[in-house]
Amino acid sequence: MVSADFFALAYLGAAVLFILGIKGLSHPKTANRGNTLAMLGMALAIGITLLDGRISEYLWIFAAMALGAFIGIPLANKVKTTQLPQMVALFNGLVGLAAAAVAGGEFLRSETLNALTVTGQTEIALSALIGTLTFSGSVIAAGKLHGWVTSKPVTMPLGHWSTLVVLLATLGVAACFSVYGGEATLLVMIGLTFLLGLMLVLPIGGADMPVVVALFNAYSGWAGVATGFMLSNIVLVVGGSLVGASGLILTFIMCQAMNRSFLNVILGGFGAGDGEEVAGADLGDKTIQQAGVEDAAFMMGNARKVVLIPGYGMAVAQAQHALREVMDVLESQGLEVSFAIHPVAGRMPGHMNVLLAEADVPYENVVEMDTINPQFPQTDVVLVIGANDVVNPDAKNVQSSPLYGMPILEAYKAKTVYVVKRSMRSGYSGVENALFYQDNTYMIFGDAKDVCEKLSGALKDA
Amino acid sequence: MEITTLTFLVTVLVFAGFIGYFVIWGVTPALHTPLMAVTNAISGIVVIAAMFVAGAEEFSPVVWEMLPDSVDADKLFYARLLGFFGVMLASINIFGGFAITRRMLSMFRKQGRE
Asked: Do A91 and B55 touch (CB under 8 A)?
């Protein structure tokens, strides 16, 4: 019989590997090694658990793992980079469901073997509660991102009051289960929690899903922590809290980048009036100026420094490869080209970076907001592709604007700005964009991919 | 005098939380999507908990035969099914999460070498 200390130390080793694994992501060069370290940590944790004397039946475990690999690996290899957000949301949900299943199984086992205590029941309740909430909320989030569920905010009857009632009922039943136990009580609690997850996420608009996905990423970690308490296991507590911390920090970063409080996002309803006009700067009777692709090609041909600002519109149009072409042509003509990335560009934190990496844009050419902003005054041409609110100067200059205070890419400081857009529809916030009306801004209407292809063609000809 | 397991676990939780906080802030924003994918895989660590349920000793044929009649065998069977389900779901996360992280990182890496 191996001592409990041996297992504890091995789990500690696995926990350290997880920490080192995430630390590897501090730079792309060490990232792959980080992923391998985390994999080793997982293998160590699973291997050591198999040696545990309390486990004596292996067939079902191995069958379940093989089934998981059989489903998980093809899923990971087939998913398109634009679909990554819903994939991550789905994975969050699966962990939640797993935690809830474990809590249910542990309850049935302990109940039949008469091994239940109030502490044990509380831990089971917590595990089932966080797990179920993560599952139902994540499924709706994934559905909204994938288009199975309407991305419009769905208001609940009686608004947030009904959600509050369900929340209180859930907590009440959970407390009741913690003290008295009972199968029926647990089932009612799980049912209520499932409903609560739906009611929490349905009212949140599609464009806020990045925040929701990050938040449920955190919950999936906390669900692991709860099961760790249930089974008094260190590696579950450490692994879970790393994931929990990661999700919370990403949630915080997303909220900051949108200049909205966490509560404001969660209470939802924002962006309900899609495309409605909200008062911005007094634009007077200013008009936009339109330009053709050839004009932009001509200006770029005579420029020294060009900054490309991709937004969600670029991702939707799948224009990343065409945009890389533009970069290649410009660089071959000796220009300095950078991509400027706003933290909320794309559909989840860092999504735009992955899309550009997929299109072989070198890491060095992709620049974060704080680094690129001081460079705009020396930039000859900015090309905005499918981005809107993140380049709206009102966020800096107009105190009455709903966007005021949101950090932006200061494209308006560049010498000339070209904006590729499908139409004059306003951005997600519904706010008019003053950048479009500037004297040095020209609009190119059309599909992002189409425009980028024509642009690189025109640049080659010039 | 020894501390209880609960206190010990709370201590571990608080320290792990702090470590997580500092390590996560060190992750470059460009890799935030791979970070979420790798945390998807790491949260699959609940597989450990599910293994303890699915492979519990009362399910080994010897112990199973010796269970007293007062024990509800059906309930135990459902417990095992839930454990199996938990191992499978967590494994989807582990295999899928690490595989997709690797795939994404290879996109960043292939242009790293010039």
From this structure: no
